[in-house]
Sequence to fold (226 residues):
Amino acid sequence: AQSVTQPDIHITVSEGASLELRCNYSYGATPYLFWYVQSPGQGLQLLLKYFSGDTLVQGIKGFEAEFKRSQSSFNLRKPSVHWSDAAEYFCAVGDPSSGDKLTFGTGTRLAVRP
Amino acid sequence: ETGVTQTPRHLVMGMTNKKSLKCEQHLGHNAMSWYKQSAKKPLELMFVYSLEERVENNSVPSRFSPECPNSSHLFLHLHTLQPEDSALYLCASSLGGNTEAFFGQGTRLTVV
Fold:
């Protein structure tokens, strides 16, 4: 069965600083990978996704993520964080064979220091 | 606005009540799902419907009963819930085949 680990529960960064959120997955082959963001009281918004091809994926709001098969990782990065980026971030894995089923990590809550 | 609308946004119900959550999408998607989001736990997939047929049921208690009358609507019928069922219930829709899922804003359910 697939699983996702987000080792950091809370992260605080200063506005303008760079950001990296970690995500490790467990899956027998190459999964589909997603990053979602959730603001308080809201649903989840897709930031970016990886299905195949270029392992560096660009997303919305200046985010990017890199798929590293050797490390089973799909870390999310942003070069300069804005106060509006404060939210909870979820990494998710999709099984290409089972369709429509996402397995989520426990999330990382990001706080941005002025 | 993701194009997936959930109602109500908030619901408080007693353990003996019967209520329903509604999800609606007009994105032309053919797969819809219910997820449960509890504090300090990963989002849990509850049910998946693809082309109006249930294709996934993640060992959810029978007090939760889904219904998908057409590809645009998904319901979650609730009865005799427990306080531990209090959570944010999220609906998602997609084109299927592990394309990206679009989520609604959720229904915050409190069972008293």
